[in-house]
Amino acid sequence: MKSITIKGQKRESVGKKATKAVRDAGFVPCVIYGGEQPVHFSADERAFKGLVYTPNAHTVVVELEGEKSIDCILQDIQFDPVSDKILHIDFFQLDENKEIIMEVPVKVIGKSPGVMSGGTLRLNQRRLKVKALPKNLPDFVEADITPLEMGNRLYVTKIVADNFKIMHPDNTVVCQVKISRAAMKAAQEAAKAEKSAKGKKK
């Protein structure tokens, strides 16, 4: 999985007054959990654009001045309900020997006969939770729609998962080919014409 580097400064004061001062200066207060003890730091709000405002999934390398870099993933993020600015971000430190659960995007591949016949592809799950060692986390999960005829569904059990596990029930529908109104109308007209033709033969 691709990673994004965030450069920040370690925070010693984490009270409300200090946190407000950090935000007023255009920085985002953050904390990293999962290690021996939480690591509090702040970073320029602009540094998070490629991590937060994207459909892609990334691991994060946090580089703090005078400290060893920390590999982690974004765990939780808080936005201001009015301005939509980032208020706080929680990260979780990665351990190369421990599996982690993370959401990754679904990438549709292949050509569906149902879609080519006029059906509409509906993506029920745009992201899926997967479990894997950090080195095996995929950038995305591939959903092959090649076998899908009109009205068919693709379940998570049909997803190829190499070196990772999909954390969803077996009956979870990833995507499906729905019959479009135009295709339904064409099918009804064809059936009507066929019935009419049979009636004339009699």
From TrEMBL:
Residues 6-91 form the Large ribosomal subunit protein bL25 L25 domain. CDD domains: Ribosomal_L25_TL5_CTC (cd00495). The keyword Ribonucleoprotein applies. One of its GO terms (molecular function) is structural constituent of ribosome. Keywords: Ribonucleoprotein, Ribosomal protein, RNA-binding, rRNA-binding. GO terms for biological process: translation. It comes from the Bacteria. Residues 100-180 form the Large ribosomal subunit protein bL25 beta domain. GO terms for cellular component: cytosolic large ribosomal subunit. The keyword Ribonucleoprotein applies. Part of the 50S ribosomal subunit; part of the 5S rRNA/L5/L18/L25 subcomplex. Contacts the 5S rRNA. Binds to the 5S rRNA independently of L5 and L18. PANTHER family: RIBOSOMAL PROTEIN L25/GLN-TRNA SYNTHETASE, ANTI-CODON-BINDING DOMAIN-CONTAINING PROTEIN, RIBOSOMAL PROTEIN L25_GLN-TRNA SYNTHETASE, ANTI-CODON-BINDING DOMAIN-CONTAINING PROTEIN. Belongs to the bacterial ribosomal protein bL25 family. CTC subfamily. This is one of the proteins that binds to the 5S RNA in the ribosome where it forms part of the central protuberance. This is Large ribosomal subunit protein bL25. It comes from Flavobacterium haoranii. The lineage of its organism: Bacteria, Pseudomonadati, Bacteroidota, Flavobacteriia, Flavobacteriales.
